């Protein structure tokens, strides 16, 4: 069983992408649970003199979308990881051009949705932190973890949101590498160029089939 370096790198990338998807979905879910299941992304906060008061939340489907993308991609990475391990053990990991094209289309779709999810996390977290800092009671968003909140007790919401955001962007980077890997592999396994009449290979093939030219007297 001979395993190439590229196969090991691809397995490592799928494994890392699987972990990033799980971390992103779980961290966002925990942060969402600290606010009673509401999605705090793009939320607004005010200060009543003694505690922070959540004024508005974004629609709950926004956080569900990010979590769903992360989980679906994680499951796909896990399946690809298992298939890659099986292929390495049975020497059946080589794909033909058709399957490479399908995998490349899937990779572009996954990368597109991951980029959307990462942007939602980044912009939504920036909007929340801007609202917290504008209360002028805190100098940074992270300090809000140590302040009292009305009706909620979010002790690690910033850390969880930061972990979700970082995992999402790392996942985007990993899928950029995986997509590049598929592009390189598909280009290497492109169709062979046709032989021309003046090519030496053409002469060798025709002489082998039809025999050499007759000797002129």
Summary of the model, kept short:
The chain has five helices and two strands. The protein has 217 residues and is mainly alpha-helical.
What topology emerges from the helices and strands here?
Blueprint: H1 5-33, E1 39-47, E2 52-58, H2 60-90, H3 97-133, H4 157-188, H5 200-210
Antiparallel strand pairs: 1-2
Helix pairs in contact: 1-2, 1-4, 2-3, 3-4
Which residues sit in consecutive blocks of at least 5 with pLDDT less than 50? none
Helix content: 55-70%
User: How do the strands line up in the largest sheet?
Assistant: 1-2
Question: Averaged pLDDT, please?
Answer: 84
Classification by helices and strands: mainly alpha
Identify the quaternary structure here: single chain
H-E order:
HEEHHHH
| Largest beta-sheet details | 2 strands, antiparallel
Number of strands: 2
How far apart are the termini? 58 Å
How much of the polypeptide forms β-strand, as a percent range?
5-15%
Please, how many helices? 5
What Rg do the Cα atoms give? 27 Å
Query: What overall geometry do the principal axes of the alpha carbons give?
Result: elongated
Report on this structure.
With about 220 residues, this protein is mainly alpha-helical. It has helices at about 5-35, 60-90, 95-135, 155-190, 200-210; strands at about 40-45, 50-60. Strands 1-2 form a two-stranded antiparallel ribbon. The longest helix has about 35 residues, at about 95-135. It is elongated and about 65 Å long. The chain starts with a helix and ends in a 7-residue tail after the last helix.
Give structural attributes.
217 residues, 7% strand, mainly alpha, two-stranded antiparallel sheet
């Amino acid at each position: 069983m001979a395993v190439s370096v590229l196969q090991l790198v691809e397995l490592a990338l799928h494994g890392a992408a699987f972990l990033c998807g799980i971390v992103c979905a779980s961290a966002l879910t925990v942060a969402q649970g600290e606010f009673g299941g509401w999605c705090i992304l793009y939320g607004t906060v005010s200060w009543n003199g003694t505690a922070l008061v959540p004024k508005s939340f974004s629609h709950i489907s926004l956080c569900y979308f990010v979590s769903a993308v992360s989980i679906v991609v994680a499951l796909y990475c896990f399946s690809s990881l298992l298939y890659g391990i099986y292929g390495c053990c049975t020497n059946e990991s080589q794909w033909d051009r058709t399957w490479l094209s399908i995998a490349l289309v899937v990779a572009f779709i996954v990368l597109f949705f991951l980029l959307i999810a990462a942007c939602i996390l980044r912009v939504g977290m920036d909007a929340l932190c801007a609202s917290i800092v504008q209360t002028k009671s805190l100098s940074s968003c992270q300090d809000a973890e140590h302040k009292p909140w009305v009706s909620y007790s979010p002790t690690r919401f910033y850390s969880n949101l930061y972990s979700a955001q970082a995992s999402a962007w790392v996942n985007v980077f990993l899928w950029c590498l995986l997509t590049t890997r598929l592009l390189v592999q598909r280009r290497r396994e492109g169709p062979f160029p046709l032989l021309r009449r003046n090519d030496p290979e053409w002469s060798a093939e025709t002489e082998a089939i039809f025999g050499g030219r007759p000797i002129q007297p």
